[in-house]
Amino acid sequence: MPLPKHKAADAKKIETERLQGFLQELLREEENKYCADCEQKQPRWASWNLGVFLCIRCAGLHRNLGVHISKVKSVTLDSWTSEQVQSMRVMGNAKARAVYENELPPLFRRPQTDQSLEQFIRAKYEAKRYIMKGWIHPPVDIADLPACPGSMIREKKVVATFSTVPKSTSTTSKQSSQDSNSQSDHVQTEIPQLIDFVSSPKSGHFALNQTGIKRDSNSIDDLFGPIVSAAPNIQNQQQSQLFAPQPPNLPFSQSSPNF
Question: What's the predicted TM-score (pTM) here?
Answer without folding.
Answer: 0.57
